[in-house]
Give the backbone structure.
Amino acid sequence: MKASDLFVKALEAEGVRCVYGLPGEENLDLLESMRAAGMRLVVTRHEQAAGFMAATQGRLTGRAGVCLATLGPGATNLVTAAAYAQLGAMPMVMLTGQKPIKASKQGHFQIVDVVGMMRPLTKSTRTLVSAEHVPSAVREAFRRAEEERPGATHLELPEDVARESTDAAPLAPGVLRRPVADEASIAQAVEAIASARRPLLMIGAGANRKLTSEMLRVFVDRVGMPFFSTQMGKGVVDESHPLWMGTAAMSDGDFVHRAIEASDCIVNVGHDVIEKPPFVMRDGRRTVVHLNFSSAEVDPVYFPQVQVAGDIANSVWRIAEGVGSRSHWDFAPFEKARAGLEAQLAGGAGDDRFPIYPARLVAEVRRAMPDDGIVCLDNGMYKLWFARYYRSRRPNTLLLDNALATMGAGLPSAIAAKLVHPRRKVLAVCGDGGFMMNSQELETAVRLRLDLTVVVVRDDGYGMIRWKQGEMGLPDFGMTLGNPDFVRYAEAYGAKGHRPASATEFGATLARCLESGGVHVIDLPIDYSDNARALSAGAEAGTER
């Protein structure tokens, strides 16, 4: 068969049914092979958006999402999405075309070293130089993308190779079970936790990836240990649980950091140093037990004394069996911090000011979204408010990026989430800056006939950087931008636009949009004047961060 046909059969062997992308002349053979095989192609308006969609599919399913671009400018437009997937541990395979490598009559037109460009941004990247290499190259790209720690891989298929004939056949994925931790490391972890006086459980992104939430819920209930999460670990254990202590990596004086300060042992499940550190280790301050699929990457802020490397769910279960509940544990400081957290979280939920108060925005979204609804955040000031105030009830229902933290991913991520989970409510929350970076994908959502709501949080500026600028005592400079009329902008794409005039009207509008069909855009002005008091100033002196 033709190599492009074999390539598509190899994708099918990996379970691929949908590819996101923007094709070009150099991958027309592959495109025709996809059409003939009945594979779905979601055509996007920008390659970066296709990459964000593929990465989000990988994040939600654990199986690599696939995106497609042509050579040169198409491939260069994928680099931010590659970094997004690589830092965020989202399995993704990127496919790009290339001019003929055996004989070309176009010189260096549009030629850049795509493989060299992708090398520092991926787990693996290669050019296919023969049709015979297709089966093993595709299998290896998916294996590397999905293997812990997941990330991005890249394959370049030149057009002359795509047209070659071959007798090769796809390779079926092998069966692989993740290794489990050895008994000695489990025993060391049990001893460290059992001998502590104030142990505290921390849940990171790795626990969200392999859906170890059920075992962690058993751990929390059986052992009775208070827990908190990193931003990308939110929802692994239901945050309405009475032992939830909040979300880390916010401000020095936040209540969760008071609990961290009081702890003498932190059981760290699934966190790695790519995500912003939720606490900073100090020599002699406390014991840190590292539970992850692999050993810890040592960093000046993170050097755990006890490490348990292996399947996380298995490790959690065995440690719970060994530790049980200990009568000498003293969680009184944690209970005090949690009481303060509960009062804080209730504080802004009924604030009627307009432009809307950020805590009220979060409260209205929480009221409107079902427990399995998916909220996809772009990157901006509102992300910190959602990280603190939004209580995630299930894994992967608040998709935020605390690794690359790129703007522009919110809307594409929501499109992918809706395609993966068509029966669930999906909401994108984007700042006006981030929304405009990929707002053209509104047309994609409308064309796909999705039921999708987008809240554009508008402050007419780059709000997070403006906040940081102010924190440094610098004058406001370079942060103001102009915006289109978002209601008319949405309507121009065939979506429905809304502009509520009060916080109460926003809540009602959001509920209506989520219940009705089609694509909706809500233009929502926001008041960030409370950022410094609510997110910056330490409530107490002496905290670690």
About this structure: The longest strand covers residues 92-98. The chain has a mean pLDDT of 92.
